[in-house]
Amino acid sequence: MGYTILSVAYPLTPVGEDAVGGSEQILTLLDRALVQAGHESIVIAAEGSSVRGTLIASPKARGQIDERERRWARKVHTRLIEGALAANRIDMIHMHSLDFHEYVPRTTLPVLATLHLPPDWYPPSVFRSPHKNLYLNCVSGSQNRACPKSARLLPPVPNGIDVARLNCRPGKRKYALALGRICPEKGFHFALDAAKSVGCEMIVAGEIMPHAAHQQYFRQEILPRLDSKRRFIGPVGFRRKRQLLGEAECLLVPSTVHETSSLVAMEALAAGTPVIAFRSGALPEIVDDGRTGYLVSNAREMARAMAKVANIKSEDCVKSAWRNFSADQMVNRYMRVYARLIAKSATEQVQARAAGGTSWLVNW
Fold first, then answer.
1. Cα separation of 25 and 271, whole Å?
2. 85/159 Cα distance (integer angstroms)
3. Tally of CB atoms within 10 A around 307
4. Are 103 and 81 in contact (CB under 8 A)?
5. What's the whole-number mean pLDDT along residues 239-246?
6. Is residue 152 within 8 Å of 125, Cβ to Cβ?
7. Partner residues linked to 140 by β-bridges
C-alpha cells in the first residue's frame, strides 16, 4: 500500500537537482525515492522547482529577502498547506524548513520536521511542543547530541548523497575548491587566505542569496581576496559541480558554525577528492582525519594541510563515501520512519474512536 507524503520546503527557495541548500537537496532525493517506490509525493516549494512528484508552487524570491517578505511567504505557505490537505488524502507531512513552526497545520496527521540547521537556530519552544503528533529528527549524531532533551526528538537520520552520480573522477588539476552558499558562516574568506599563503590556485563557486548580510559578506570579505589565481565563478549546476569536485586537489570547508552535516564534503569524497575542514559540528563525522582529508582549526593549519593533501588516496575517499554516505541508506531510514509514524497515528485514531473520544479530530 502506497503512502502520500506532503513535503514542505523552505519558503522562497527552489528544490531540484541544482538546488543550493542542503535541506532542498535532501527533499529532492526523498521526493525522487518516494516516486520510484510507488508512493505519491506532493511538494510545496518555490516556483522553478523540479520534482518527480506533484509540485504545489509557492512564490520564489524576486528581490532582496527581508523579514517582511519572509512573513508574507509564510502566510502563503500556510494557505498552500491547508489547500493541499483539503484536496488530497495525505498520510504524513514532512517539513524541511527552519521556520516550520510558523505554519505547522492543525491536523491529526503525523508531522515530521527535519532539523537541518544547528539546534539553537530554532526557538526553544519547538523542543517543548506538547503536540504528540509532531516529531523532530536531526541529520547527524553531533547535532542530535546538541539538542535539548525532548519527547518530540527521534533518533537522527544522517544525510546521504547519490554517490554513484558523483563518482566520475575526470582527472586532477592543481586547484583547491570551496563550494556552497556564499554567506558568513561558511567562512570562505579563511579558505582564500589559506590558498594564497601557499600560492595555490582556488575556485570559489556558489550562489549569493538576496540577503543583505550575504551580499555584504561577499563585498567585504570575498571580493577583496580575489585575484588572477583565486577566482569566484558564481552558482553552478550539478554537472559543473561534479566536474569541479572531481578535478580539484582538495575541497576546503572552513565553516564557522557547528555544521549539522556537509553534503558538499560527502560529494567531494564521492568524487575522490580529499576534504580539509574546520573541526566543527558534524565535520569530524564526515572527514576521517589523515585518511580522507584533514581536520584543522584555522586558516594557518588549513594551509599546512593543503601542502600534504597529496598523501590522501582518492580510493580511500570513494570507499568512505560508499560506506557511510549513500543516499539509499538515508532513504531507507526515512521510509521506516514514515511507516512507523503513519501506523502509530492510524492505531491511535482507531483507539480514540473506539473509546468514544473526540481527540482524534484535532489534537493541536
1. 17
2. 28
3. 10
4. yes
5. 95
6. no
7. none
The answer to whether the predicted template modeling score (pTM) of the entire model surpasses 0.85 is yes
Three cell numbers at 328?
539509499
120 contact partners, CB below 8 Å, separation of at least 6: 146
> How much of the chain exceeds pLDDT 70, in percent?
97
pLDDT, tens digit (0-9, with 9 covering 90-100), for 66-99? 888 889 999 999 999 999 999 999 999 999 999 9
Task: Quote the CA–CA distance of 245 and 265 in Å, as a whole number.
Answer: 10
Task: Pull the grid cell for residue 299.
Answer: 586558516
- Give CA–CA dist 184/257, Å, rounded: 9
Residue 21 vs residues 13, 117, 201, 334, 356: alpha-carbon distances, Å:
9, 11, 26, 19, 46
What are the tens digits of pLDDT across the range 133-155? 999 999 999 999 999 999 999 99
CB-based burial label for 8 (10 Å; 0-12, 13-18, 19+): buried
Tell me: pLDDT of 108 over 80: yes
Cβ atoms of 160 and 325 within 8 Å: the answer is yes
Say how far apart CA 290 and CA 310 lie, in whole Å: 11
Length of the chain: 364
In degrees and rounded to multiples of 5, residue 278 shows phi and psi of: -65, 145
Contact 84, 5 (CB under 8 A): no
Assign 3-class secondary structure to the chain: CCCEEEEECCCECCCCCCCCCHHHHHHHHHHHHHHHCCCEEEEEEECCCCCCCEEEEECECCCCCCHHHHHHHHHHHHHHHHHHHHHCCCCEEEECCCCHHHCCCCCCCCEEEEECCCHHHCCHHHCCCCCCCEEEEECCHHHHHHCCCCCCECCCCCCCECHHHHCCCCCCCCCEEEECCCCHHHCHHHHHHHHHHCCCCEEEECCCCCCHHHHHHHHHHHHHHCCCCEEEEECCCHHHHHHHHHHCCEEEECCCCCCCCCHHHHHHHHCCCCEEEECCCCHHHHCCECCCEEEECCHHHHHHHHCCHHHCCHHHHHHHHHHHCEHHHHHHHHHHHHHHHHHHHHHHHHHHHHCCCCCCCCCC
